[in-house]
Amino acid sequence: MSATTNYLTFVGLMAPLMAFQLVRQSVGFTAAQRARAIERLWRRLQLPIDEEQFGRLDDRLERMRRGPILGAAIGIALVLPPLLIAALAGHPAPTEFVHWCAYVPGACTFVGLAISTTVHGFHLDPALPRVARVEPLSRSDYTDPRSVLLFRLLVLGAALLAAAGLFAGLDQVLPAVFALAAIGSLVAVELLAERLAHLPRRARNELELRWDDGLRAIALDNLFVVPGLFAMPVLAFWAPDIIRTLFGDAAVTGYVVASVALGIAAVVAFTIRPTGRSSVERLHPRKGTAA
């Protein structure tokens, strides 16, 4: 087998494994994995949990797992056939092709997870008696402003790069398509998050309400990742070509790409935080997050 075939085989194995790992860590395939996922949620939100609440969370995760599993299946189905054909043929594969094979399964899995967590995070069982909380809330009550700012910056960076590529005469339209998709999905997510935040909060007791608020915060945080998934290919796959078209100097291109990558890594390191707990503290300031 050639080096290209070995590399494609490696990517073909790793991409489904990464999608599988994302599903296992977030919602779990089995009861034991769901229990560990609930434990991670408990550590993230730092809320009391009793047997009844554990059962509610287990039932919700069992229903929630269908979304990311379906997303992973779609992503793997999209990349596996061409990946196998290229590997068996032994022809040199373009770098972009290998990148897409690694990117698509994970992106589809996370989109499925975002949709599923949003649907089940804001779904209420009408059979259970609940007391409504009607105080007006907004999207900012649930989301972390630093996380939202990060994904807005990613979309802005992708849009600027795609526009620069078009004006510089880059003979590719896909960066512009993905940048427009990132902008459109960001607008849609902003509107949807605001609408969801205005829904009445209903719970049987204070503990259930606090858990629901934490899960809703995580759901909205996952939604804001979707525009970032459209922006990342522009920043990761096409940025070198666009910058090379603009400057024409390999040394300058490498310097600019490295600077942008370092800047993005710094923004991620200093701004991104696990959401949920801070939202619970904002919505329940008196009781905070009891241990």
UniProtKB/TrEMBL annotation:
The chain crosses the membrane at residues 69-91, 97-115, 149-167, 173-193, 214-238, 250-272. The keyword Transmembrane helix applies. Keywords: Membrane, Transmembrane, Transmembrane helix. This is Uncharacterized protein. It comes from Agromyces seonyuensis.
